[in-house]
UniProtKB/TrEMBL annotation:
<dbReference type="InterPro" id="IPR036412">
    <property type="entry name" value="HAD-like_sf"/>
</dbReference>
<dbReference type="InterPro" id="IPR006439">
    <property type="entry name" value="HAD-SF_hydro_IA"/>
</dbReference>
<comment type="similarity">
    <text>Belongs to the HAD-like hydrolase superfamily. CbbY/CbbZ/Gph/YieH family.</text>
</comment>
<keyword id="KW-0413">Isomerase</keyword>
<dbReference type="InterPro" id="IPR010976">
    <property type="entry name" value="B-phosphoglucomutase_hydrolase"/>
</dbReference>
<dbReference type="InterPro" id="IPR023214">
    <property type="entry name" value="HAD_sf"/>
</dbReference>
<protein>
    <submittedName>
        <fullName>Beta-phosphoglucomutase</fullName>
        <ecNumber>5.4.2.6</ecNumber>
    </submittedName>
</protein>
<dbReference type="InterPro" id="IPR010972">
    <property type="entry name" value="Beta-PGM"/>
</dbReference>
<dbReference type="InterPro" id="IPR023198">
    <property type="entry name" value="PGP-like_dom2"/>
</dbReference>
<dbReference type="Pfam" id="PF00702">
    <property type="entry name" value="Hydrolase"/>
</dbReference>
<dbReference type="GO" id="GO:0008801">
    <property type="term" value="F:beta-phosphoglucomutase activity"/>
</dbReference>
């Protein structure tokens, strides 16, 4: 294992909750029901695609012009930015600060593969931006998760082969992207949405370098034997 690539929302900090609140605010304005299960299906999905899915869900895909959709996207992001402006290092999910320190000690490269254009600002507010050797710019990608492009780009920026990377995700689309990139997939959360992951932990605090390294070792032995 030469690198660990992280998703942001729901792995490093709980901004998944802020995306939920911001989309709920927009959905209420346009009279589309929005709940946590709908929000779950948007995790890891780009802002534009998320709005498209909400409109389809509400049977309203043909009711808005492109300019109106742009306005809704702008409003969602403004609302979201107000919420993230309050983030502090206290908002790191449990165990993540420790894991970053452990990886540093082990000389393992650290990358970020987040679909969020707000990711650099969030890392700055959490005061961990300097721990990352590479941060993928999602605006430069042709395809979003579940396509592997974002994870392959992170590996290329880190100068590490995908086969030597582990990646951590909280969303089904993200786990699918990691597996298609040929990496070791770590899922944080409930097993139903993580079924393709190579290692599943319930919460971020269960993810230590020791656990990661032990599972990595059995994964590579199995891979060699196949
Ligand atoms: P933004 P991740 C994703 O981040 C979120 O899970 C998803 O809900 C959001 O729509 C997307 O980023 C875009 O975010 O609107 O801030 O550009 O999970 O890939 O870190
Ligand atoms: Mg996520």
């Amino acid at each position: 294992m030469k690198a660990v690539i992280f998703d942001l929302d729901g792995v490093i900090t709980d901004t998944a909750e802020y995306h939920f609140l911001a989309w709920k605010h927009i959905a209420e304005q346009i009279d589309i029901p929005f709940d946590r299960s709908m929000n779950e299906s948007l995790k890891g999905i780009s802002r534009e695609k998320s709005l498209e899915n909400i409109l389809i869900y509400g049977g309203a895909e043909a009711s808005y012009t492109n300019a109106e959709k742009q306005d809704l996207l702008h409003q969602k992001n403004k609302y979201y930015q107000t919420l993230i402006s309050k983030l502090t290092p206290e908002d790191l999910l449990p165990g993540i600060g420790r894991l970053l320190r452990e990886l540093k000690v082990e000389n393992i490269k650290i990358g970020l593969a987040s679909s969020s254009r707000n990711a650099p600002e969030i890392l700055r507010r959490l005061e961990i931006i300097d721990d990352f050797h590479a941060i993928v710019d999602p605006t430069a990608l042709a395809k979003g998760k579940p396509d592997p492009e974002i994870f392959l780009t992170a590996a290329a920026l880190l100068g590490v082969s995908p086969a030597d990377c582990a990646a951590v995700e909280d969303a089904e689309a993200g786990i699918a992207a990691i597996k298609s990139a040929g990496m070791f997939a770590v899922g944080v959360g409930y097993e139903q949405s993580m079924h393709d992951a190579d290692l599943i932990v319930r919460q971020t605090c269960d993810l230590t370098f020791e656990v990661l390294n032990e599972e990595w070792k059995s994964y590579t032995i199995n891979r060699i034997q196949k």
